[in-house]
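Q: What structure does this chain adopt?
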Amino acid sequence: MRKFSELTIEREKGDIFRYKIGNILKNQRFLDITRSILLLLVIYAILWGLFSPKNEFTTGLFWGLFWPFFMIITLPFLGNVFCMICPQGFLSRKLSSIGLNRNLPKRLKNPYIGLGLLVILYWFVLYTFPGTYRNSFNTALLFLFFTLLAVFVSLIFRDGAYCRYFCPIGRIAPAFARVSFMWLSSYSRICDKKCDRPDCAFSCPYKLNPSKFEKNNSMSICTLCMKCADSCEAVKYSIKDWSYSLKRRIENPQSWEIWVYITLLAVITITMRFHHGLGHSPIKESLPWVITGKWLQELTGIDKPFDFVGLTALTLAVLITLTLVLGGFFICSRIINRPYREVFLNLGYAIAPLMIIGSLSHVTHFFFTHYFHEIINGFSQAFFLDFRVQPLADRKDTWLRIFYIFPFVAAGWSGFLMWKRISFFEVKGFKKAVGYLFASAIIWFYLFLTVFQLYVRYF
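A:
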């Protein structure tokens, strides 16, 4: 039997490997060169931050380029392309090939370790010690910590342990990639034949089998390293309907994916609405988290840089989000007469768009007011170029309000997915409508918060 890597396959129109330019994405030499360049940039930015604390390059690269553009903008459309070129993932795979290759202890095989590190080391610090990561030295320390962690874990353990369990976005990116148009799988007409050696699975450094992605409606923790596509011609990377997998049944739903959606919705979206959105509005002084935060500040006598207002906003956002999501699902489960866990694992996927699509409003707005000139000026400084640019827009420019469309798109898309997914329970009529209303409680709150924020700021 011919190896699948030697087959000539008639590819579908949606398969980007059908085109020469698309084949670049599975060319390991091209990918490794790209990853190497990014790795050198990361190391350079860390060194600049450590030895030249007052510089624009370190903060511009990490907070102006990597986070908003390689993550927030790409995930809702292109999927997990950041992991495809991630310098830490590249470093991790290279070190694993020469490391001790030990099994990770079972107690450390926890999908929430990386997520927890992100929430504690970044978001908690951001809200309670504001301004910390505007300092390039502190930013460099944060990324130095994760780089050294990647080195340490990868030299000892195998099967992509760092990306699977310790990377702060190792579970976040694959979970939110479900919202995008892109999907990695294989040609079933080829793979359904007897395969003595599944090259795609054997080549995967994370022990995944792309030939099962379509059947399971899940790409698991795939980082799109494209080792599988390079090893077997039967692998395809296709343009699908938006949120393709979220509109279908998921054979083996994973609770960690839903907890990623819930956690980041609370910690990023709702908290940012409370602390930064409404916190800069005319009604700031009458907000409950501002009042409570200032009271705690006076009661404890703890002055700046610790921010009790930020801590109170974060705490309240988490409590409200958990109450609305879990409470709404619980009531829905009673209405449609289905087990709570089944409802949670099915309908939880519908809230994925709220954070990732809604965040496009902030990112696109900040591109014109902050990110563009911070990135360009940072690179100019780091590579000793003699030019500077100005912001593309001022915060007061009214045309920037067009980007407020994204939260409404997020709410509408999430609402559509919720209706689609509740249909899987084969419930109809009044029960379906009422169950949908309660299951969508967080969507209604998100929509109300968006409208209320715009009203108090502009009317």
